[in-house]
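Deliverable D4.2, example record:
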Amino acid sequence: MSKKLLLLAAALLVSGLALAVDKPQTKCPIKNEPIDKATYVDYQGQRVYFCCSSCAGKFRKDPEAVFAKLAKDGIVPENVQKTDPVCGMKVSDKSVKADWKGRRLLFCSDSCKETFLKDPARHVKALDEKPAAKS
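Output generated by the structure prediction step:
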């Protein structure tokens, strides 16, 4: 009997996770005010919106705190990433992706995704440095 209850609980948990949907960003992560779509910062392939330029400045001082808050709230920033953080190839297909510390990152292949997951902190910095390579 307890095995059946455990299996039922596991099935409900998995189905709940499958139904979970990322929330779009509608509030400023600093002041919790409605965002102004004209006020944003693109950082490591993510576009984070703010209510004002003052909040955008605060983000620049501590982006990790903002990404942590967005992740905690189930909000995934808009992805504006153009290159794979591992190989630098142009990314056009959005099917190979991984979430890491409040960011949704795109990859050109499963191989690059696996390489990224071995050392994400090293590879995510490349998004600020690598120009798009021809695919």
